[in-house]
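User: quick one - fold this with zinc ion bound?
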Amino acid sequence: MILPIRGIGDPVLKRKGQDLSPDTKGLAELIDNMFETMYNANGIGLAAPQVGLSYRLFVVDTHVSIQEDTDDEKGIKQAFINPVICSFSGDKIPFEEGCLSIPHIREEIWRHDEIHVRYQDPAFNVQEAQFKGLISRVFQHEFDHIEGILFTDLLSPIKKGMLKGKLDKIKRGKVSVDYPMWLMKK
Ligand SMILES: [Zn+2]
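Assistant: Sure. Structure tokens for the protein plus zinc ion:
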């Protein structure tokens, strides 16, 4: 089921997510719905607050962007529950980011290239992983969502000023965050 995506200006996007426990009702279905919602919107990551739920949960599928697996970069499809970034490493590098909650806006954001993370998988087994490149980038962006942070919050005051008009339009509902239904697989 495709869920409505919340746009910038919705207070849920500014809230910190709550930890999930194995007895959270309907979690498997929620994860399925989040993947479906993300694919429908052509996204590669989606966090629970973006569908109106203050949970520490996000889904990532980078196969669209990483088509050929190399040793350095393999595409992943994964739901991350109660994730933690244990450490950052590598240089900080710029990359143009977008966000399903902030349509039509892309801005360069500097982030560390590598991260070491801990999380729970949908069976609530604790997993650890080292990510770099695009997966690290998407993980950090989605992790920010469950902390109530949007990528536009990370911009310089000057950049924020330049974007204010555009962001206000989304906040007032003048720019839709409904994604085209023709992208639906069924
Ligand atoms: Zn986002």
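One thing worth noting: Residues 101 and 134 are 19 Å apart (CA to CA).
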